Amino acid sequence: xxxxxxxxxxxxxxxxxxxxxxxxxxxxxxxxxxxxxxxxxxxxxxxxxxxxxxxxxxxxxxxxxxxxxxxxxxxxxxxxxxxxxxxxxxxxxxxxxxxxxxxxxxxxxxxxxxxxxxxxxxxxxxxxxxxxxxxxxxxxxx
Length: 142
Hints:
Shape: globular
Pfam families: YCII
Protein name: YciI family protein
Number of strands: 6
Strand order of the largest sheet: 2-5-1-6
CATH architecture: 2-Layer Sandwich
Order of helices and strands: EHHEEEEHEH
Helix content: 25-40%
Family: Belongs to the YciI family.
Number of domains: 1
CATH superfamily: Dimeric alpha+beta barrel
CATH class: Alpha Beta
Organism: Actinophytocola gossypii
Oligomer: single chain
Distance between the termini: 24 Å
Structural class: alpha+beta
Radius of gyration: 18 Å
Largest sheet: 4 strands, antiparallel
């Protein structure tokens, strides 16, 4: 199973404050642990919401809202995607998150990624989804 580990934003991440060298090193070591465990699929920090936009769809129309966005606690500062056998396994991985991050005050959310085979769809559509996944993985390697 795949899981997304979501690091919530805070005032520092929304201000675009760069991480300290110590934190970058600690996160690198943490990610290397995930690599050695065969769990890490992807990980990245995100730019502040001021560098983003929201596209809302309503009544057949679209509205674009440029950042920054008001509620930092509802925003995402970064993510890590891992492969694991259970939610509990991911919880144990996240418990080793570097305490330097956010001065030890961060909120991490863990969500299981719903896989194509879980949806009620035709075999033809499932095959198209699997082909798309293979193509995106090849794109990542390029």
